[in-house]
Design a protein that fits this description.
single chain; alpha/beta; six-stranded mixed beta sheet; two-stranded antiparallel ribbon; 10 strands; globular
């Protein structure tokens, strides 16, 4: 006879995607694609992504097709994470308002502890529901002026790719939704799972939330552009001292010209960018290896563990040892457990 003793079952983290009329097609598909690809080595699904609309009714997308959902707003009552994709039409964009039933469902989900996210102009929906008042947030840079006019109480930063404010997260336009989803996967399950999902979806595994959006600016002359190759060169040498003059020489620019174009392309000075890259490299090593903090400090280019602790705490908010402990989630823990960012909320 087969032993029928009940075995512990780890349920996937439930993600509800709320599609409204005028939903941006790419934004709508991003969560299912990214979270669906987030799997550990044994390929166990970590997330279950489902789409809903008000009343379970069809809604129009921006790509010339209708979305026929299987669920209504009641799905938000049981979701662990709720995501609102961008929209290109409707009262949230034109008047700063949203249907009362949508606002009520979003607020109820937030109040019971669900993580709330938006992609691109989905931030207009969260703001209209009152979930962004007093919070830092972002949206597509092209909608920044309109957003500020409609929602002056939100601390909008249109320069960054995404903002993680703990229980409420917002992202900039289009591809930044991919960055935000990967950030959440990394927060929940560590770099190894997030990087595996990125490879599966053939996208870059990491663009920091503080990285500048590609805001429309006058285009410099072609002969003066191009620090990307130098950034890759520097990334390969994080364990070594990398001086500004060496980076400028690699780019075949003067220090002044290099610094100007570097900031234009990344939104950061070379020194700030290097520090951020070293910190992120240290994060990956802390999450994925058993190397000592001293060794990680050397490999990431900080030199000493004291320097690593100082800069890591300033950027991440905890010590390297505490960070490593947070990401070392026991195998039996629920896969939907929210990681460091939510704990710091």
């Amino acid at each position: 006879m087969r032993n029928n003793r009940a075995m512990p079952v780890t349920l996937p983290h439930r993600v509800a995607v709320l599609a409204l009329d005028g939903v941006v097609a790419l934004d709508l598909g991003t969560p299912a694609q990214l979270f669906g690809a987030a799997r550990p080595a044994d390929q166990t699904p970590l997330y279950a992504v489902t789409t809903c609309t008000p009343g379970g009714r069809p809604v129009r997308s921006t790509a010339g097709f209708q979305v026929l959902p299987d669920h209504g707003l009641d799905l938000l009552a049981t979701a662990d994470t709720v995501i609102v994709p961008g929209i290109h039409a409707g009262p949230p964009l034109t008047a700063g308002t949203v249907d009362a039933e949508v606002a009520t469902a979003l607020r109820a989900a937030h109040e019971r502890g669900a993580r709330i996210m938006s992609i691109c102009t989905g931030a207009f929906v969260l703001a209209a529901a009152g979930l962004l008042d007093g919070r830092p947030a972002t949206t597509h840079w092209a909608y920044a002026a309109r957003f500020r006019r409609l929602h002056p109480r939100v601390r909008l930063d249109p320069e960054v790719l995404f903002v993680d404010d703990g229980s409420v997260l917002t992202s900039a336009g289009v591809a930044a939704g991919i960055d935000l989803c990967l950030h959440v996967i990394r927060t929940d399950h560590g770099s190894a799972v997030a990087n595996r999902a990125a490879r599966r979806c053939v996208v870059p595994p990491w663009r920091d939330g503080g990285q500048a959006q590609y805001i429309e600016r006058p285009v410099p002359r072609a002969a003066q552009t191009g620090t990307a190759a130098t950034r890759e060169w520097a990334r390969a040498r994080l364990h070594e001292p990398v001086a500004l003059r060496e980076m400028a020489a690699h780019a075949r620019m003067s220090v002044r010209t290099f610094t100007r174009h570097f900031r234009s392309e990344t939104g950061l000075s070379p020194a700030q960018w290097l520090l951020r890259q070293r910190t992120e490299h240290a994060r990956v090593l802390l999450e994925t290896t058993d190397l000592s903090v001293d060794r990680i400090a050397r490999d990431a280019g900080f030199g000493t563990s004291a320097a690593l602790r100082q800069h890591f705490h300033a950027r991440v908010g905890v010590s390297p040892t505490a960070y490593r402990g947070t990401f070392r989630v026991p195998p039996a823990a629920p896969s939907g457990q929210v990681g460091l960012a939510a704990q710091r909320a």
